[in-house]
Every structure is written in structure tokens, then in C-alpha cells.
Amino acid sequence: MPINGEASHPFIPNTASDRAVMLAAIGVDAFDELIADIPLAHRYPDLELPDSASELEVVAELRSMASSNAEPGVMPSFLGAGAYRHFIPSTVNALLQRGEFVTSYTPYQPEASQGSLQAGFEFQSAVCQLFDMEVANAGMYDGPTAFAEALLMAARITRRKRLLILNSIDDRLVQVATAYSQYQDVTIQTVSHREALDGAIDSSVACIAFQSPNFLGRIEDARAFSALAHHHGALSVMHTNPIANALFKPPGALGVDIATAEGQPLGVPLSFGGSYIGILASRKRHIRQLPGRIIGKTMDTRGRDGYTLTLQTREQHIRRERATSNICTSTQLIALMVGIYLATMGPRGIREAAELSYHKAHYMADAIDGLDGWRVARDATIGNSGAASVFFNEFPVECPLSPGEVNRRLLDQGIIGGLDISELIPRGMLLCTTEMNTRSEIDRLIQALSEINAVDAA
């Protein structure tokens, strides 16, 4: 509507008349008076910007820049280590882009947010089924923040200060957990496998935390770790790959108290590292210490199903000293992607994705073991931790030359290689497959690796 006789636009509200009214209200004649303390030379500096361009020219330039990326899907990719390229059904984007979801934010008002709330409730329910856990929250920022929050949750539940983490875990999880806990009056101690755990655990330990599949892709003895923790009155925290839960026993079936994961494999594209969603689930008896939001299902006065934010444990909603989390950004949109993915794939589809990932990784490992100069590091350890013989969809390989050089040569052949883990294993590379890697892509990688070694041998 017009303001002072001038047309107004809801997204460009400050007309000249608007600015004059605001300046008069604060007793200032001109805007420059508000920035008088800034030296004139720095108020409007000359910027070395290129000439303006049309939209067509900008799009062409951006496409040219994007073409320099090594993109999984365009190129065969064998890079995993926490973010994985899995099949995403077309239903995910079709529903995700509906206006009522794209434009929604935190569903504080249940009367206006039933669709978003139901989507979050279905996400929680599907997570509980996949992880065999009793309760799950509506999502965290990402996998590492979910893991860090789980450690602090264990400390609150047990009222203990020491957190034991197995060193077969992804070090990036430890780094985030350390950042989260540095002002929380808790101590993180990284330990190796069972022998070191036996010597480190006592009545001051809040939890034993581990990753399975671990950073090298191997399956840990979660049941034994949980039993050891419980024997000392501590909790067990397991960080996992959600796809692996469809093939191996899930955390709940292994006696785990708190389970976390990066939700990206469940229908979320790689997207240069985000945005993703963290999964956090636990036993029902710990629900009051579960951070984030929990959406509940109820019934209205007419007997119809209704959804609402049942528990909100951050300081915006309750007294700060009782808050269990400062998570405040809504992860609802990414949770919706995960929910649609799980509903579309179903138990059988997720199981098939897990089986294909597993079998293709083992096919590739056996083929690499047959190459001169290459060896699957089946007995490799992280620090002093013990080796495990069972792995899921990724595994370490000892290369005949530096992994960086291997990856450069693979990229020259249009192949995205693995992660350089030379700091853990001499000339080590972590390779990964999912259901998206065809047999011809794997055979192409094997041929490329054999040629790399043959060239250097000559």
C-alpha cells in the first residue's frame, strides 16, 4: 500500500520518504551522520570488480567454472569416509520442492504446521525402526554434532566426567566433540581396543563411545563394548552408518544406549558437504536428556490425529541451566528428505542398497589383492587398536606410491579415487563403493591401478 503518497513494496520497504521519517524520528538530518565515525576514505572504497554482465553471460561463466569439478556420477567415484553417493528416488525432490515444505521453518505453531510436524514425526519413527531404538529426536546439525551431543548427554545421565572414545573412530568426530565439550567440565580420553579399555574404565567414566563401521570400514564388537560399559555403570554410545543397519544388527539389538549417525546416506545428495542432518536416538528412559526437539503425536478434541513439539530442551524454551542443547536451526527440510527416502525405499530397498554396497566392496577388495604392488590392509590398525576382519563398504589399501600421486593419475583417467590416510597407514588409501558403482566402473578402477603400478615398475 502507498506510504506518504509513494508506492511501497513489501520486500523493498525503504523509500526516500520512509528514510526521511526514520531519520527525523531519531533526530538525524542525513544518513551520512550515522556513519560519521568511519573515515571518508573507507566509506565507499573503489572495488576492483569486473564489468557487469548479463544473466546469460553469468550462467555461462558459472557453468564453465563448474565443469572443472570432479563430480561423482559424471565420473566413477570411490571416495567415502563419511559422505556417500547413494541412489536417491525421484520422489524425494518431487515432494521436497512443494511450496508448503520449502517455505516452512521451525513448526512452533502446531495449528499451522501439521504437515511439517507429521513429516518430523515420521522421520523420528523411521529412525527408531532402522536403529532399533525407542526414541529419536527430530534431527541435529549433522553426524559429528549428534555424536558430540550424545557424549554430553551420557555425562548428564551418569553425572560422570570422563568420556572414553575408541581411536578407531573418525578423528573429525573427536575434533567436534572436543570443541563441544571444552567448557562442559568433562574430559575426553581416546583409547585403543579392549586391553586399553579394561585399564581405562572405572566408576568415573560416563560412556564408551565407538564407531561401527569404524573409520576403516570395519565392524566393531558393539555388544562387548556395551557390556563392558554397563558393568562399570557407564553408557555405550555408537556412531554408525545408517545404511549398514539394514545389513548388520542395529545399535538397539547390540545393547547400545545412545546411537548417532550422519543422515546424509539416506536420500541427501553430497552437496559439497552439506547441509546434512545428524541422527540421535536412545533408550526411552533417557528421553529427558535427549537434546534437540521431539515431535509427538496426540489427539484433538474431535478425536483427530494431531502433532506437536512435545519436548524442546534448548534454552529458548526452558531455563538455561536446565537446557540440554543449544541446537536452534531447524533441520526439518533435510529430515523430510530422509523420511521420504526411507518411506520410498522401504526395508527391502534399504537392505538391497546395503547388500550391493557390501558385495561390491568385497569384489573390489579381492581384485585389488590380486594386483602386483597393491594390498588390502586387512590387518592394518588405527593406533594400537586391534584389527577386524569384517568390513562394510570401504576398506584401506596400501599403495605402491603416494595416494596423492595415485589420485592424480586416476583423475587423469576420469576416476575419483579414495581418501589419503597416509597418516594412519603408510601410503594408505581408503576406498569405498556403494550400490551406485557398477561392475564396469570397478573393473575400470582395477585396470587403472594395475597400469599405474606397471608404469612405475618399468
Which helices and strands, and how do they pair?
Elements: H1 16-25, H2 40-43, H3 55-66, H4 90-96, H5 99-102, H6 114-131, E1 135-136, H7 143-158, E2 162-166, H8 171-181, E3 187-191, H9 194-200, E4 205-211, H10 222-231, E5 235-240, E6 258-262, E7 278-282, E8 293-299, E9 305-312, H11 332-369, E10 375-376, E11 394-398, H12 403-412, E12 419-420, E13 428-432, H13 439-457
Parallel strand pairs: 2-3, 2-4, 4-5, 5-6
Antiparallel strand pairs: 1-7, 6-7, 8-9, 10-11, 11-13, 12-13
Helix pairs in contact: 4-11, 6-11, 7-8, 11-13
Percent of residues in helical segments?
25-40%
Largest sheet: 7 strands, mixed
Q: Give the uncertain stretches in residue-range form.
A: none
Write down the overall mean pLDDT: 90
Radius of gyration: 26 Å
For the largest sheet, list the strands in their spatial order.
1-7-6-5-4-2-3
Structural class designation? alpha/beta
Question: How many DSSP-defined strands?
Answer: 13
Percent strand equals 5-15%
Alpha carbon gap, first and last residue: 79 Å
Give the helix tally.
13
H/E order of the elements?
A: HHHHHHEHEHEHEHEEEEEHEEHEEH
Silhouette: globular
